[in-house]
Amino acid sequence: MRAGQLARDAVKTERGADTMRRVVRQSKFRHVFGQAVKNDQCYDDIRVSRVTWDSSFCAVNPRFVAIIIEASGGGAFLVLPLHKTGRIDKSYPTVCGHTGPVLDIDWCPHNDQVIASGSEDCTVMVWQIPENGLTLSLTEPVVILEGHSKRVGIVAWHPTARNVLLSAGCDNAIIIWNVGTGEALINLDDMHSDMIYNVSWNRNGSLICTASKDKKVRVIDPRKQEIVAEKEKAHEGARPMRAIFLADGNVFTTGFSRMSERQLALWNPKNMEEPIALHEMDTSNGVLLPFYDPDTSIIYLCGKGDSSIRYFEITDESPYVHYLNTFSSKEPQRGMGYMPKRGLDVNKCEIARFFKLHERKCEPIIMTVPRKSDLFQDDLYPDTAGPEAALEAEEWFEGKNADPLLISLKDGYIPGKNRDLKVVKKNILDSKPTANKKCDLISIPKKTADAASGQNEAKLDEILKEIKSIKDTICNQDERISKLEQQMAKIAA
């Protein structure tokens, strides 16, 4: 009897081990290993923004890390070359052109020196950062995009079309801009009845998905201005949701249950009645920010206020969302930056790099897959999205689509020379109303328009000069305040 029981247990154990072996064999990311860098490789003494907004506060590319910071007299963010680690001087130059706190920043995927910012001052600004970083504070953006009537909390560049930028504000409107001309070409102002929590482009930028305070997840065709699919009460809890597109066209969401448990779910936009998968995680109240790697199908979840990063692999097999592991640390995160694939070190089998914001510093965290061989691991690094745009803005607005142009990382990625962002503003008075604009332009007789435009330009120049001098004064005062604070600190010590 006893021997029979032992035999049955042995068979069960063997089966269990076999299943485990099968899981390990199927997933090469089972043993992804996260490690924070040493203190001297962190960015120290940074006053990370305290504004109550659920964005990541940090944006990274292969050249720079940008961090939204506390600033008196307006909004500002730091832009540091990646190698500028250690203590950051309080007088280090900032990007400080906004008159209200900066809420979101996003690097252009097709130009590593161009960054967009959205602010409480209701504007979106696009900035060109010098090749070697800032030596003086930057107060003049390349272009100011004005069209929102309330604060702008979301900015997101189009993944494949050059100079196409999306912004979403607390006026519940989504505007898609042609940055090259400074024009708002699409205005989706009647699709959301409540605050938009986030917006995500799909792989080729033909659709967007949104999560909103009305608990709906929407899939929208922005050029047709149509809602393609929507799900009411994707997550039943009242706290903020997030929705992102995956490479296969499915939508991944994070949110809260009615009992305030954090959830993640996977949806097929063609049938959003029921989720493909729904998992409950824990009862923490921080919003889960998802970061997605389309090359490896891994999603990293970083909770605001959490001290951990959980990661999952998305596959075609049930349960579809497979838990891999958790990277844990002691300090809670205020925000998080995520490096594009082309900025990673392929020689160290690095598959992700995060930039974790603490209260006073930014700490890189490196995720690697341990491998014994020093050779290039082509299974970890399929060809990835490169920095070249597949379409021009005009082509996309006319209806064309294109997948990202891929590059190989076999010999590592060397950042090339970026061309300057040039904005050629069209004379709106001469242009015909586009089909996508919902407002009718008032036709003005051309002669009077020409006469008035000369006077207006002169006035505009005067106003711009005055604004610039005020902004310069604010930046100088900021630097003076920080120097005085340093002196006080020394005296107090």
UniProtKB/TrEMBL annotation:
- Pfam families tied to this protein: DUF1899 (PF08953), WD40 (PF00400), WD40_4 (PF16300)
Q: Which domain of life is it from?
A: Eukaryota
Q: Which organism is it from?
A: Bos indicus x Bos taurus (Hybrid cattle)
For this UniProt record, the keywords arranged alphabetically read as follows:
Coiled coil, Repeat, WD repeat
The cross-references to SUPFAM superfamilies, in alphabetical order and at most eight, read: WD40 repeat-like
Please provide the Gene Ontology terms (biological process) for this protein: actin filament organization; neural crest cell migration
Q: Check the record and name the PANTHER family matching this protein.
A: CORONIN, CORONIN-1C
Q: Where is the DUF1899 domain?
A: 22-86
Tell me which family the UniProt entry assigns to this protein.
Answer: Belongs to the WD repeat coronin family.
Q: Which GO terms describe its molecular function?
A: actin filament binding
Stretches forming WD repeats: 95-137, 145-187, 189-230
Q: This chain belongs to which protein, by name?
A: Coronin
Mind telling me which InterPro entries this protein's record contains?
Answer: Coronin (IPR015505), DUF1899 (IPR015048), WD40/YVTN_repeat-like_dom_sf (IPR015943), WD40_repeat_CS (IPR019775), WD40_repeat_dom_sf (IPR036322), WD40_rpt (IPR001680)
